[in-house]
User: Fold Nitroreductase from Dictyobacter formicarum.
Amino acid sequence: MSTQPTFPKWLKVANRLIIALNYLGIGFGTWSILSIPGRKTGKMRSTPVSVLHVNGRRYVVTGFETQWVKNARQVGWGTLRRGWKKEKVAVVELPVEERGSILREFPRQVPHGVAYFEKLLNLPGNPEAFAAAAPRCPAFRLDPLEQTTRDA
Assistant:
């Protein structure tokens, strides 16, 4: 039996819409687009992420072992795009013991994302519950590799 949660059917369409708007230069909310080369094909794969800002550094978290998580672990870099701004970043996975403080920020900085964690992980929407979920929630720090570029 799979431990992978069942995502809402509309999520794939919503993700494509968020990606398309970003590529048109329209960044909104907390959404950015993280693109990581596929571990088998090398083809860039994109997914919307909400970037957390903690102590002057940037992080992304997820509650699942997704394909982008597997790709990030293997290749260790990607591009982060918000509107017209695009930046090459190192994608560094945090050890479990460092994830709690980052996950604790998620409900504060990304309140619209809390419902997904609540429903799909059966997780209460408070910061301490998020911190306690660190062993099952991959978290990555995004470090700049190059200067930010602006698409023309």
In short: Residues 11-23 form the longest helix (13 residues). The beta strands are 31-37, 44-50, 52-54, 57-61, 77-82, 85-93, 139-144, 149-150.
